Structure to design on (333 residues):
């Protein structure tokens, strides 16, 4: 197949390139040419800012593709431009969306693809708006789109951490190995099914080969759905650190301070049966293996060694004192 990857040198998109090459496809990537990651040898590289439709069109010239994997689309204007530009010259267009399109009630776990999409952040709302442009293009003119909604993505080259004050945290291994506290939203009771980027890459080709996947969206989560507390315990175990000291950060206070971070306070548990029924594909990379790959990669990269700027913040002191005060109050009640 002739495959175009929009992005191609990013954290996720480099895995899409690797999978395309492994499957023997003829691969083209389109980037602005700024990324530190090089385009692998033997791959055609086009240069354009995809948010400038004139330049995108010019870079693509008259090319057509069997498959476009769009790994770097955030703006509804860019989705509209993609429909215009790729109309009639692509057999399948896979848009990498996000689980942050979900939000609102009623939520029945695990969430199916039909769950409400009242997204809680600008990022999620824009991705949902992009999805709607593609759904509409499928309904109106059979634009051959399929949408994938990954949650927290894992793989070498990235950072670890989710459902916490820090989120992706370059200092996480330093914190855990030094027995420093981590502040977890709702005490780490939130559900998360991290997905390895190689499973997303395989899912792209699975949906691309399925007629049933035309005009549809799919969850693509990992096979293991755990609490965020378990995620940090696993990282600590793999990193040879002591069991983590976890402080509970109330979600309501966190959202009041950072409204656009609200999606991180949701339970993120997703049904995968539609993906399997329509494509025969199910993700296989187990969470401990994905985390072990990342810990080894972070150690190999050796960064960072020193303490973060905000070690032992007033927040840590406050959360400790608050937890003790609540315990005292309960005992006295
Ligand atoms: N990370 C997660 O946990 C997560 C979760 C859910 C969904 N997602 C989705 O996964 C995708 C992220 O992919 P990624 O990790 O590969 O992103 P990334 O690491 O930010 O990589 C971006 C890639 O796109 C290129 N690029 C950036 N802006 C561009 C532009 N305007 N025009 C053309 N190329 C551009 C970059 O190269 P140049 O800089 O050289 O242009 C690079 O190749 C996004 O769609 C995101 O919404 C991520």
């Amino acid at each position: 197949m002739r495959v175009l990857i929009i992005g191609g040198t990013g954290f996720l998109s480099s895995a899409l390139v690797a999978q395309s090459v492994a499957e023997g496809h003829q691969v083209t990537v389109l980037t602005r040419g700024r990324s530190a990651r090089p385009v692998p040898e033997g791959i055609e590289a086009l240069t354009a800012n995809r948010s400038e439709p004139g330049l995108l069109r010019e870079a693509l010239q008259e090319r057509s593709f069997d498959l476009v994997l769009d790994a770097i689309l955030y703006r509804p204007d860019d989705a509209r431009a993609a429909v215009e530009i790729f109309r009639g010259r692509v057999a399948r267009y896979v848009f990498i969306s996000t689980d942050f399109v979900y939000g609102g009630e009623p939520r029945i776990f695990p969430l199916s693809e039909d769950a409400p999409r009242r997204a809680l952040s600008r990022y999620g709302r824009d991705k949902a708006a992009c999805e709607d442009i593609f759904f509409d293009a499928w309904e109106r003119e059979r634009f051959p789109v399929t949408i994938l909604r990954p949650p927290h993505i894992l793989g070498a080259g990235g950072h670890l951490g989710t459902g916490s004050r820090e989120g992706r945290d370059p200092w996480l291994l330093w914190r855990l190995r030094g027995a420093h506290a981590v502040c977890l939203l709702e005490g780490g009771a939130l559900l998360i099914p991290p997905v390895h980027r190689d499973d997303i890459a395989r899912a792209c080709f699975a949906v691309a080969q399925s007629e049933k996947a035309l005009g549809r969206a799919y969850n693509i989560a990992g096979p293991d759905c755990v609490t965020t507390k378990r995620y940090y315990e696993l990282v600590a175990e793999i990193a040879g650190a002591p069991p983590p000291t976890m402080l509970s950060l109330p979600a309501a206070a966190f959202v009041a301070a950072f409204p656009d971070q609200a999606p991180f306070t949701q339970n993120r548990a997703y049904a995968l049966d539609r993906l399997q029924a329509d494509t025969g594909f199910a993700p296989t990379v187990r969470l401990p293996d994905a985390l072990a790959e990342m810990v080894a990669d972070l150690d190999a990269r050796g960064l960072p060694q020193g303490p973060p700027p905000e070690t032992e913040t007033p927040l840590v002191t406050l959360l400790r004192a608050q937890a003790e005060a609540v315990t005292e109050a309960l005992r006295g009640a």
Summary: The domain at 73-332 is CATH 3.40.50.720 (Rossmann fold). The chain has one domain: 73-332.
